[in-house]
């Protein structure tokens, strides 16, 4: 009789193994989609820099006005008094009680909680109760909030990780769709298609703007001469 007896896995252990495999597949897919999203953002940023160098400089007056608007809005925000409601204070205390960095000794977890607490503090300063509720809900649903050891507890953690991965995949898909609907992405696509036909669409746009600027300048000079 074989002395090496292979222990049969319990149903819980078999289920945990399946979920670990499912999580690994989801994480691989998530990594690929994160890469695609990062690449798209990088390409758009590069195109935006080129656009600003060629076209943006011709809108300097608009930039000046927008800067004044931003300055005025900042002044209004600075003049507001901070008066947190009792409900806002309660939410803040509830969130801080669960995720405060001082509650853990692991350095990596401590740094992660510090970043999250920065979001909490900003939401509190903004008086954003909805944001605080969202942070609290995500934390209570996170794998990190599950305490204890053992197969059953680990299974709960993995299930929550799977849920988080699926949520992030959905968020990436939504962000990709949103980016592809932006004017900047549409313009980038038009410029790329024009380049295939040997056209420089940005330079054509710049020339049209230069003509409008020149005509406006001529009109201004004409008015000055009449006066």
UniProtKB/TrEMBL annotation:
<dbReference type="InterPro" id="IPR036869">
    <property type="entry name" value="J_dom_sf"/>
</dbReference>
<feature type="coiled-coil region">
    <location>
        <begin position="155"/>
        <end position="182"/>
    </location>
</feature>
<keyword id="KW-0175">Coiled coil</keyword>
<feature type="domain" description="J">
    <location>
        <begin position="71"/>
        <end position="140"/>
    </location>
</feature>
<protein>
    <submittedName>
        <fullName>Molecular chaperone DnaJ</fullName>
    </submittedName>
</protein>
<dbReference type="InterPro" id="IPR001623">
    <property type="entry name" value="DnaJ_domain"/>
</dbReference>
């Amino acid at each position: 009789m074989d002395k090496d007896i292979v222990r049969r896995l319990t149903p819980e252990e078999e289920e945990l193994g399946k979920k670990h495999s499912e999580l690994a597949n989801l994480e691989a897919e998530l990594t690929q989609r994160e890469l695609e999203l990062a690449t798209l953002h990088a390409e758009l940023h590069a195109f935006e820099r080129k656009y600003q160098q060629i076209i943006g400089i011709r809108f300097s007056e608009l930039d000046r006005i927008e800067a004044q608007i931003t300055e005025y809005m900042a002044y209004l925000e600075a003049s507001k008094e901070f008066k947190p409601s009792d409900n806002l204070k309660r939410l803040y205390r509830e969130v801080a009680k669960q995720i405060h960095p001082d509650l853990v000794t692991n350095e990596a977890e401590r740094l992660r909680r510090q970043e999250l607490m920065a979001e909490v503090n900003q939401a509190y300063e903004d008086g954003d109760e909805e944001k605080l509720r969202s942070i609290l809900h995500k934390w209570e649903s996170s794998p990190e909030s599950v305490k204890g050891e053992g197969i059953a507890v680990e299974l709960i953690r993995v299930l929550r990780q799977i849920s988080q991965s699926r949520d992030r995949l959905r968020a990436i898909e939504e962000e990709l769709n949103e980016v592809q609907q932006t004017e900047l992405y549409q313009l980038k696509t038009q410029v790329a298609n024009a380049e295939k036909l040997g056209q420089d669409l940005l330079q054509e746009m710049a020339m049209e703007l230069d003509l409008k600027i020149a005509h406006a300048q001529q009109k201004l000079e004409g008015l000055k001469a009449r006066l």
